[in-house]
Specification:
This protein is an alpha/beta fold. It has three helices and four strands; from the N terminus they run E-E-H-E-H-E-H. Helices cover about 35% and strands about 25% of the residues. The N and C termini lie far apart (about 35 Å).
Length: about 100
């Protein structure tokens, strides 16, 4: 798992699973502490995700809300969205909707 950031966006690259949760959790909480604005987690380069990783994001979303931030997931691929629904955690996140094309 590689993690990069630009502005208020944290970008995740690779497989987000139990092996990378500590790394992502640490980066996410450090990133939230350093931001005065809403935070976006870009998941466009996340190929697979498991339930443990989704729980990390759900808890981070709750923590962000408690501290006055807003956390949004962006560019969730089909496998990520499918796991959100299968795990029954879809309601725990705000997922940015893609703009419709004409």
């Amino acid at each position: 798992m590689d993690i990069t950031s630009y502005g208020p966006t944290l970008v995740l690259h690779g497989d987000f699973d139990v092996r990378s949760t500590f790394q992502v959790r640490s980066a996410l909480y450090a990133f939230l502490e350093g931001q005065d604005q809403d935070v976006v987690v870009d998941m466009s380069d996340v190929d697979t995700i498991d339930v443990v990783a989704l729980r990390v994001l759900a808890v981070a979303t709750r923590q962000a809300t408690r501290s006055g931030h807003h956390l949004t997931l962006r560019n969730c691929g089909p496998s990520v969205r499918r796991m959100m629904h299968l795990s029954r955690l879809a309601h725990s996140f705000e997922v940015e909707r893609a703009a419709a094309t004409a």
